Amino acid sequence: MSWKSGLYALLFMRICRAYARTLGNKPADSMMCVLSSFDFFKVHGYWPNFMYPRTFEEKVCHRMLFDRDQRWTMLSDKLYLRDYVANRIGSDYLVPLLWSGEGPEEIPFDDFPSKFVIKANHGCAYNIIVTDKMQLCRDKAVRQLKRWLSENFGRDRVLGTAWAYKNITPAIMVEEFLEENGNVPLDYKFFCFSGRAEFIQMNFDRFGDAWEKTLDREFMPLDLWQGTRQYEGEISRPNNFAKMIRVAETLSEGLDFIRVDMYNVRDRLYVGELSCYPGGGRIRFIPRKYDFILGEKWK
C-alpha cells in the first residue's frame, strides 16, 4: 500500500508542477486552487478555504498561490537578503561570506578554512556542510551544485507554487562555519506578525538528529508538536534574548508575517534567513488549535 501511496503522490505533484508552469507569474486560478486543496487535505486532514483563510497554514498557502509582492522574492534570495539585513540592522549580524559566484568550477576551495558551508541562494536545503576540507570530494560537490543551479526551486519542487523563488537568479555562496564549543549553534526561528515576534522555534543539532522546541515570546515552552522530535533537555533563556527579539522585530517591521531565523554564538547574533513560506504550507500543528492561534495573529 505504501508504494502505491508514494507513486500517487509523485504523479500528483508532477501534475501540479506541470499546471503551475502554465500560469507563470500569474496568481493561481481555480484549477490550481483545487489541486492545492487536495494536497492540503492530504497533509492536514481538513479542506482549506484559500480565498478566506483562517488558519496559519491556509494563509501560508494563500500567500504562495495569490500574493505576487516582489518583496517575497527579494527576501527569499539569500544573497539579496544580506543587503536587506545590513541596511536594517548592520553588517555585524551577517554570517561572514567567504566567496560568492555563479560557476561551481570557479570556487577557490584552497582559500577556505578547514570548515565552511556552501549554499545555493535560490531555494531550501541547497547546502553542503564541510567540517573537514581534506575529506571533501570537490568533484562531487561541483556536480551537486550544478544540479541545484539547474533547478528552479519554485517551479520544480513540491507543487510548483513557491512563487517567491521562481525569479531568483541562481548563485553560490560560501559562508563561514558557525560553531560554539565545537558544536553547531542553536537555530532560533522567530515567527513575527506585523512586526511582533510571537513564537520561537528552537532547532537543536540541525545537521544531525534534529530536535526542536517551540516557545512563546516570554520564552515559555508550548505543548506544540510540528512533526520533529521534541527536545526534552533543559532550555536556558539566552542572556541576550531581549536583543534577539529586537532584531527579529526590526527585520520584520512592515511585513504582515515573516519568520526570522538567527544563530546565537557566544552572545553574538547572526541572521540566517527570512522565510515567507515556512514549511511550504505543509506543517501539521498538533494540537490543531495552534494552527488557528497563529492564523489569528496573521492579519
Globally, the shape reads globular
The percent range for strand residues is: 15-25%
CATH superfamily descriptor of the largest domain: ATP-grasp fold, B domain
Q: What is the C-alpha radius of gyration, as a whole number of Å?
A: 19 Å
Task: Give an account of the 3D structure.
The protein has helices spanning 2-23, 30-44, 56-66, 70-76, 78-89, 138-149, 153-156, 241-252, 289-297, and strands at residues 97-101, 116-120, 127-130, 172-176, 187-193, 196-204, 211-216, 257-265, 268-275. The chain has 299 residues and is an alpha+beta fold. The protein folds into 2 domains: 48-94 and 182-299, ATP-grasp fold, B domain (D-amino Acid Aminotransferase, Chain A, domain 1), CATH 3.30.470.20; 96-176, no CATH class. The strands form 2 sheets. A 5-stranded antiparallel β-sheet has the order 7-6-5-8-9. Strands 1-4-2-3 form a 4-stranded antiparallel β-sheet, covered by helices on one side. A hairpin with a 2-residue loop joins strand 8 (257-265) and strand 9 (268-275). Helix 3 crosses helix 9. The radius of gyration is 19 Å and the shape is globular. The protein starts with a helix and ends with a helix. The model has no long low-confidence stretch (mean pLDDT 94).
Provide a quick synopsis of the model.
The chain has helices at 2-23, 30-44, 56-66, 70-76, 78-89, 138-149, 153-156, 241-252, 289-297; strands at residues 97-101, 116-120, 127-130, 172-176, 187-193, 196-204, 211-216, 257-265, 268-275. By secondary structure, it is an alpha+beta fold.
